[in-house]
Amino acid sequence: MALLNFKRSAPATETTVNPQVESFLKDYSIEVMPRTAEKVEDFRELLPAGTRVYVAHIEGTPIEDMVATAARLNRDGYKVMPHFPARIIKDEASLADWIARYQGEADVKQALLLAGGVAEPHGTFDSSMQLLETGLFGKAGFDRIHVAGHPEGNRDIDPDGSMKNVDEALAWKQKFSETSDATMALATQFAFEAGPIIEWANAIKAAGIDLPVHIGIAGPAKLQTLIKFAIACGVGPSLKVLQKRAMDVTKLLLPYEPNEVITALAAHKAANPEFNIEAVHFFPLGGIKTNANWAIANGGSSAVPADQA
């Protein structure tokens, strides 16, 4: 059953916060890009101090813009985790340069390593595993490294629709984590149904993958916006749910909100404390402000006004 809610949320003053959801949203993270960050006058009015903010590196974005965004977020008191997409990094020297810039100009100590959504590599790297094998992140003293997880598989990695290569990569990352000084976790692509997410999380745990999961959740957005991003990001079976909804033209004007998928995952976590989903990671597809306000209304920590920070 599709766990979606397409109704408008009541204003925050009328919302009764679900304590399970409040607990589940603790320490959530969120993703920005340099161009979306530019539209935010002051992050301190939207996000709690200490929030982990991923800085997504889209192909064509200058490294200077990435570092400047990371530096701004660091100054504002956030844990900054820039993307390192293997397929757009030319070579080991370029990787070393990126790391040096991030550390020297933005005091970055965390990184998300992923292959990156590029068909043809720009240089010698093709996967996050190759980035890890350089040893550069360990030498630079990174204290936290996240790598990608795929609850619905990934057609770029497994064109036949299986999970074979994805599962083999997870096993490799698990083994690497056992020798790394950095804290490691899986950050996943977004999905829309709790049932398959729970099944996947339980399956990888049963297979010996004990890396904690930071589950990707799409923030509030218009349905047509969500479908566009879901197609671009290679979302799997969940996309069919959205496409079915889109057949009703009237629902194209109604916003998607992640209430039901979050509520179901939170309830499962409350009933099973050992469940390996550790945190929520938001993709703010309908805007950072919209996503932050939804999180606050549903139990996420409130931001401190800038003049009180």
From TrEMBL:
Keywords (A to Z) from UniProt: Oxidoreductase
UniProt-recorded Gene Ontology molecular function terms: oxidoreductase activity
Oxidoreductase keyword on record: yes
Name of the protein: Methylenetetrahydrofolate reductase (NADPH)
Organism, scientific name: Litoreibacter janthinus
